[in-house]
């Protein structure tokens, strides 16, 4: 049976994904930017529009990290405004389960679901970051091992609150007694149009996969421990196999929680570069990578791994010959995943093999463009990944704010429709209907 492809749009912001030097780049905080990308996603019949979250501006060597630009506005406030200028598009907010409380957040999400007619989603993230916690007078209060236990209880508590109103509009008192939350009272917002807002989980660690299998409706993630997309030195076949392995691993965990294969959608984040020819697309992709990784950005990236001040190094010169300094604290508010010594060894081997400079190594190792080619080739490849059970669809992360999705919607979406693997119109009005998810049964 031919699978239908799910598509979503991620609003680019911090990090070096966005090419801010491009004259087409606009503000990441003005409402017109959010509106443009959301309207484009809806024109392309995407399932949802997705916002990330940052609760503190990152610092590097004691200074605000330049790539944070002017920070990020609060996601749910933006989405409430977007609900007024869109009609069918799902609206997903990343909200931290560590630095919020169930009653307040459940109320805000239910309100968005009502205002949008059933299009709200919550991307659940966690944090054990004491640097961010200082904004909440909670620095270091939650052990890293407790992040997901609190998040699981948080989601369960929110669902109890959403279920405290009957489907026919009657309110009933609630009471939750647990390790992390002990609350009782009456919820102020009636049951929302899609029963519960959609729950998304971002992360690909083992505990993250287990949390998604038990709790989430969608998982937004990379593929495998090395993340996704792969570097340019990886082959398309290896990334397809990594996707299939990730997909099979997460789906097999569902049965343990009494869930069916289709109850969780797997949507990896990807980027796309299009060209009139394959050579044109490759050239554009290479130029985008260079512009995403300026000489300054290359050194900053290296400093995050090496944990040392490398400002005296030439970005066009060789990598440092000393090992990284673990837990140096040179970067605050961002955690570099994995063994930094192992990453450094891998990067040195790559640089030696190909004769790369610091900047070239960072570009090569980071290879952001997941799908590069003509519109026809990209449409075929996206379809192939989904039909091979390497994904249920994709969350597109464009390199331009806010017009980076325009070309994909104009040139690739029609080809997917011609292949019969993407909708030609919205069939329902709620996000759950777009994703093919059943409305949760009321648990009275």
From TrEMBL:
It comes from the Bacteria. Transmembrane segments: none annotated. Residues 27-388 form the Luciferase-like domain. Keywords: Flavoprotein, FMN, Monooxygenase, Oxidoreductase. Its EC number is 1.14.-.-. The keyword Oxidoreductase applies. Belongs to the NtaA/SnaA/DszA monooxygenase family. This is NtaA/DmoA family FMN-dependent monooxygenase. It comes from Streptomyces justiciae.
